[in-house]
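Whiteboard transcription, Tuesday session. T.W. wrote the structure tokens on the left side:
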């Protein structure tokens, strides 16, 4: 849609609120994208594969939010070097958005070691996933599933997966919708009252295993009701 501009927080948030995404490539101006289709996740419909259910039952990992934002962004940047993803200027912009309360990270810990996670931008009942990483198999999926289930409990409307759908996201239940449908949902979501007072406490006193079971029970009930 456009070329140039800057990484000021207000410009980035305005873009996201209109379904536009900034993309950076090394030594090139910012590119601002939209698309005829969008890949999205409705948190209440997140799919949890059997191998992930087994992993969650093992209780090997701990999930936190906003406890290591800078480390998560750095880890995501390291895993995408071949794609010139997350330039220095873009990383600084996400740090600013985090300080302003718009950008958040989910961390997966094995003991004291950070082994996976993701980060994204949120306002109203909308969350845009920027990037994820895994230093141990399936930990990025664990971060995404944990966040999806928790946001479903908080009545979040949508998790935006971007304009390039991947098999990885679709395996977790993401779907592709038209731009018109996406913008209609976005308009409702961006103006909704904030429902999370403290992102850092999002997983405190929260049982992931029980929440996942509740989620699966809810999907089963919904499916049975649809057959009646």
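and on the right, the sequence the group agreed on:
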């Amino acid at each position: 849609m456009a070329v140039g501009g800057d990484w000021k927080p207000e410009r980035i948030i305005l873009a996201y609120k209109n379904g536009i995404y900034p993309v950076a490539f090394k030594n090139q101006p910012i590119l601002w994208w939209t698309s005829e289709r969008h890949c999205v996740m409705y948190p209440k419909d997140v799919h949890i594969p059997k191998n992930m259910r087994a992993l969650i039952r093992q209780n090997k990992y701990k999930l936190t939010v906003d406890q290591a934002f800078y480390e998560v962004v750095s880890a995501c940047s390291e895993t995408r070097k071949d794609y010139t993803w997350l330039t220095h200027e873009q990383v600084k912009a996400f740090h600013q958005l985090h300080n302003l309360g718009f950008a958040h990270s989910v961390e997966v810990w094995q003991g004291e070691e950070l082994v996976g996670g993701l980060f994204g931008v949120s306002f109203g009942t909308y969350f845009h996933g920027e990037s994820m990483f895994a230093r141990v198999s399936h930990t990025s999926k664990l971060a995404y599933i944990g966040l999806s289930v928790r946001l479903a409990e908080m009545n979040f409307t949508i998790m935006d997966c971007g304009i390039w759908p991947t098999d990885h996201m679709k395996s977790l239940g993401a779907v592709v919708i038209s731009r018109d449908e996406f913008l209609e949902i976005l308009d409702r979501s961006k103006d909704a009252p904030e429902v999370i007072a403290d992102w850092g406490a999002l997983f405190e006193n929260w049982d992931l295993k029980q929440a996942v079971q509740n989620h699966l029970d809810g999907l089963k009930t919904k499916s049975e009701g649809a057959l009646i």
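Someone added at the bottom: The first helix runs from residue 9 to 16.
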